[in-house]
Predict the structure.
Amino acid sequence: MTSLIDARSQDFFDIDANNGEISTVADIDREFMPVHYFKVTGAENNGAEEGRTATTTLQISVRDINDNAPVFEKVIYNASARESLSVGSPIVRLRATDEDHEANGRVSYYLRGGGSSSDENHFRIDSATGVLSLKSSLDREKKAQHVISVIARDNAVPSERLSTNATVIVSVVDDNDNTPDFTKRIYLSLIHI
């Protein structure tokens, strides 16, 4: 049995010369190499004489297991939003990747508290794209900064799902939305001449 495309495949598999059974001789990882190709030759053994031979091509496809958690591009995302930003406007896009294959590598995004914390009440996240957008209006005079925890979770079967967290800090940029106000309605002053 000889590897056809990548010589490293030879390090992972072996063939029993007597019965043709192929087995692994080292741990295999789909993320390292998803497919291995071999040329397999079978030879008839007639004592000392050379017998007939047959050759075939063998393809070994490695099935994925969910052994990688999603990884965010950043652990902390810093963003800003004007307090006059309209509801529904995007603020920042979070991105996480997962080296696994198919559903095991597809990532969905969620707010950690499910949108129940006071900071998260102002935001929503698109579970497919990772775009964090404004859900309700902001007011810098009430709160100048919001801290949101976001989860990236793969779409493996529920019992095997893996996830990771990132934090988004949204600083609210002030708008000139307040008129000056006197501290009193009437000021009295006595002047002595």
Summary: The CA atoms of residues 17 and 192 lie 117 Å apart. The longest strand covers residues 49-61.
